[in-house]
From TrEMBL:
It comes from the Eukaryota. Residues 2-27, 78-101, 104-133 form the C2H2-type domain. Coiled coil: none annotated. It holds the Pfam family zf-C2H2_jaz. GO terms for molecular function: zinc ion binding. It is found in: Nucleus. It comes from Pisolithus tinctorius Marx 270. This is C2H2-type domain-containing protein.
Length: 290
């Protein structure tokens, strides 16, 4: 004889008692843990709180693992992953993000970013800023959201004018005679115009991949290795932030411009610096004459 104290009933054997536990509204059994709760609310709270259960209380659904539960939250609910909170609707999540994650949340796009820097980059993109910086060269109708983007376009060699990174560097060397943004110790303002071009051949194959002899990076295709060698990766850091207390150096003019535009070091507060950079960039269309 097996007694149920909660219901004050007796059962002839254990199996009958267990069947009673499963069928009775007075019993709420967690089959996985073997715990019997006096109410449905108690059982549900157990599923929510216990690390042994991956349970969505809003859908009354169990999942096979934590990652599956999180995927469910992302796909079917208005979920804040940072706070691990679910909201009743999209507006509730939006208001939460606007107040609690304003340092990395774009209100107009209703989009949250991993960092404040990522948000700032998004706000400076063509999504929020007009492309009003036009390429000054004849035959090129490209336009950009910033001067650094224009310089990057020219450095890439994709402009129809034929301007590339070497010509940009040459132009800056001629313009920046006081070394406001260039480092004379890196020979940019020296007497020669020589640039070093690295070109890899099939001899770069090491048996497994095409290997860069300078940094030992590996590439599946020779074309990818040569693109790597043609990039600024192995060039000297010939540009510098004009703010002496900053001390950051860069391999390309576009990287310097991005740094200045980011206002991370406060360089744009100085009128002399703004004037110097604006004058240099306003004459960028004359690169072909240098």
């Amino acid at each position: 004889m097996v007694d149920c104290e909660r219901c004050e009933r007796g059962f002839p054997h254990q199996s009958a008692y267990l069947q009673h536990i499963r069928d009775s509204r007075s019993h709420n059994l967690c089959d996985d843990c073997g715990i019997d709760f006096s109410s449905w609310r108690g059982l549900k709270e157990h599923w929510v709180q216990s690390p042994d259960h991956d349970y969505c209380q809003y859908c009354d659904e169990h999942f096979s693992g934590w990652s599956d539960l999180i995927d469910h939250y992302r796909n079917d609910h208005d979920y804040c992953e940072t706070c691990n909170r679910i909201f009743k609707n999209e507006n509730g999540l939006h208001e939460h993000n606007r107040q609690s994650h304003k340092d990395r949340y774009c209100v107009s796009c209703r989009r949250i970013f991993r960092s404040e820097n990522n948000l700032n980059s998004h706000l400076k993109s063509s999504i929020h800023k007009p492309k009003d910086v036009k390429c000054p060269f004849y035959g090129c109708d490209m336009a950009f959201v910033s001067k650094s983007a224009l310089i990057l376009h020219l450095e890439s060699g994709s402009c129809q004018s034929g301007v590339n990174r070497q010509k940009v560097n040459q132009y800056v060397r001629q313009m920046d005679r006081n070394n406001a943004i260039t480092n004379p110790s890196r020979l940019l303002t020296g007497g020669g115009d020589t640039t070093v071009d690295y070109i890899a051949s099939e001899r770069s194959w090491n048996g497994q991949a095409y290997e860069c002899v300078l940094c030992h990076s590996r590439f599946a295709a020779l074309l990818d290795l040569n693109r790597h060698l043609a990039s600024p990766r192995h060039q000297d850091k010939i540009y510098k932030c004009p703010l002496s207390s900053c001390g950051i150096h860069f391999r390309t003019l576009s990287a310097l411009c991005q740094h200045v535009e980011s206002e991370r070091c406060g360089i744009m507060k100085f009128q002399v610096v703004r004037h110097t950079l604006d004058n240099m960039l306003s004459g960028i269309g004359r690169i072909g004459y240098y």
